[in-house]
Amino acid sequence: MSGLNSALETHLGTGVTTICRCWALSRRDGVVMGFTDHDTVLAFDGISFKPDTGLSALALQQSTGLSVDNTEALGALSDTAVREDEIEAGRYDGAEVRAWLVNWADVDARQLQFRGTIGELKRAGGAFEAELRGLTEALNVPLGRTYQKSCSAVLGDEECTFDLDTPGYVSERAAEVVTDRRVFRFADMAGFAPDWFRHGVLKVQGGVASGLQGMIKRDIVEGDARVIELWHPLGAEVAAGDLLRIEAGCDKRMPTCQFKFNNLLNFQGFPDIPGDDWTISDPTRSPRLDGGSRR
Predict the structure, then answer these.
(1) Partner of 25 at 20 to 30 A CA spacing, among 93, 122, 170, 204?
(2) In this predicted structure, which of 70-79, 142-151, 189-198 has the lowest mean pLDDT?
(3) What is the DSSP string of 263-274?
């Protein structure tokens, strides 16, 4: 029992126990939910753990390697707990999960058994099944730079350093006409060149879809209207009047970084890398060898 909370260890040593399990789920939008398999409400760490939510967990199996911890949370979808529309909207994607073994007669006697995030989430027939990934999952993510012509930074991140709040690079306006949660039409968006927002991000800041965002596929002018089209539909409906934030896009090319954003000093690509045809060329006078199409 090494490493156990001392009060819990003492309790387990009595042979007659009052043990239950508690789970806390913290979404990225700040919502925190508590669940327990006990029959009454428990509270600690500022969280109320509710019974009768239909949530349970399979046996916790953790390894010392970098594989995904083999544990799952099972539950029934309900309006008072985990709702299907919020799962569809992506509200639970990447949510943090913590699981404790708790003495329900003395909640100070508890032990944190698991901490991780929600991975793959399936739902069918009014129920859901969520894969829980441990903290070592982050160590499986490839790190380091890739030598490529295009920029590897994300517009506005710590490597790019560009301030997206710079005047002329963001538009905050109310939604007007929305089709299929994917196509946004505006009667007037003066001051921005066509295609200015392509490759950018549209973020919803009001309404039931608040907090959701999508990557912009097209930004075109159709007659007197400006049309912003996303690659994929948002996970919730956007109504007319909901506040939107539309950020300028970057196609990762050096000329775009230089002339659109005036940020060439922070360009994270390698535009002068020779193409594959350079490595197999004969030592004779050749046309431009940059890996591009010869036309």
Answers:
(1) 204
(2) 70-79
(3) -GGG--S-TT--
